[in-house]
Amino acid sequence: MVDRTTAPLIKMDGILVEGKAQYITLHLPDNSELAIINTYAPRASKDKAPLWRKISEANLSTEHIILGGDFNHFKEEETKGRAGERRMHRREAATWHHLTLQHGLLDAWTLDNFRKMSKKDYTFDNGRKGQGSAVSQIDKFFVSQELDSRGGRIEAAPSIRKISNHSPLVITIWGRTYALPRTTTYFDISLVKEDASRDALLEAWEGSQPLPNQDSDWPGWLEAATKRVLQCNGKLAKERKREKGARTRGLQQKTRLAEIRLQEDPEDEMVRDILSTTQGHMADSLQEQVARNHQLSTSTWFRYGDMCSKKFFDFHRIERKWTLLKELTTEEGEIKGQEDLAHYIRSFYTHLYTSEAEAPGTSEAREACWTSTPTRISTETNQELTKDLTLKEIRDAIAAMPKGKAPGGDSVPTEFFQEFAEEISSTLLRAFSAMLRNGETSESLNKGLITLIPKFGDHAKLRNWRPITLLESLYKILAKTLARRLQVFFPNVIRPGQTGFVEGRSILDNTFLAQEAQDWAEESNQNLVLLLLDFEKAFDRIEWSFLFKALARLGFCP
């Protein structure tokens, strides 16, 4: 498994031997490559030869290699802890030596450049049943000579009996010459469920300053409030992480000392009881962390795992598409390098978003459009649409917001507002009402983070990437409130022929209509013409002036 920072660096990945060996190749920001191979070797020596041969035949295309895993080289039980490794079969020895010589692999546990961080000298205890048990260092890391020159540290960490009878083996490589990509500020949603954290977050939202009296002051107050909430959440998350880290380090230290003492005297029952207790606490802590990290994905799977839905197929998608652009193809040729890519992307979207309202034929086309567009909004409807917002509308909009969405520049998710809806809805009502009366919002509220999502087709061409804007939660709540008020009158405004993007209608209706029209033409022997128009980047090319004129022509707020 890799984290979200490392995942975009993956260049290649695959399975060398089913259930026994897999690999990934990382393309690092300094343009070097690192190959990591994970293996689980068979127990019998004669069965290992094909495994080492397959790994040798892998085309890794780099000299920076880490080979790690369970090699199943351990001491026999009948040796009762005395020295003496199981002997290699001749065929295994030949293929193993060929593999290590081919890539210059060295056992990091034995290298002077890798400092051992623990006195513990085994990673497998076989249940630790006494002097007859096998304790050995069977989990290993082999590194290439290029990585050995960098050096690092290696440690057999404390084991957790409820999870595995193997101790985690941790390796750190020195000499990183590049900076990892910066991650955005993370809002810990779990804190809104804890009583102590709830009080602190709500106090941060309210702040020490009184609520504004002037309409023009509300946008600035909301911006400051979200910043206070984000800072408070980060502080609380750090405090909890610090407390948990101290507790975990204490358990690890107790476990490590107990394991070292049992290594010297396997019959010490008191130490065995201490080890069992501390390992149990460590397992509980780890399970709690895993449950919290995967709570969203697990609940989503339980909800959609048995349904023929988009989420089901997304879960089973084999090839994951990453949004890390390394090169693009244009009519002039290929573009590489971060600066050249950024310049081309900026120019592409600058041209895309540039107004074309004065293009030849535009004004005539608009006039023809207005001529056939009757007024559909009455005076009574306008009064309903422009009446003051209500507290119920704000709370209903907050409750209708989808969960698990990425926040915008404020980094505060909608879950925060949903958890504190009762306490802060009245404040949001005053703020939104003031903005509507004043006719403007703050600059920060209108800002969004634009990211590119891959579409179907050749991803080396920029037109096959769809820009999506991550908006601030407050903006989305206000927009949701107004949209829910509008949607009641949509059937009177939008013609039945538009079946997409309207609640209660399906975009597939027109597809079925076209099929039925084709069947009718064939059965009745009639001529039929079907015309399909697909506008490139249609939503990005819509003119704001056209939208305002269309709303006015329909009768909105004359």
3D structure, described in words:
The protein has 558 residues and is an alpha+beta fold. The protein is built from 19 helices and 13 strands. The chain has a six-stranded mixed sheet. It has a three-stranded mixed sheet with strand order 6-8-9. Helix 4 (195-206) packs antiparallel against helix 5 (218-264), helix 5 (218-264) runs antiparallel to helix 6 (269-293) and helix 12 crosses helix 15 (473-486). The chain is extended, with a radius of gyration of 32 Å.
Gyration radius, in Å: 32 Å
- Helix/strand/pairing category: alpha+beta
Number of H/I helices: 19
Instruction: Tell me the major beta sheet.
Output: 6 strands, mixed
- Unreliable runs: 75-85, 129-133, 177-184, 298-313, 315-322
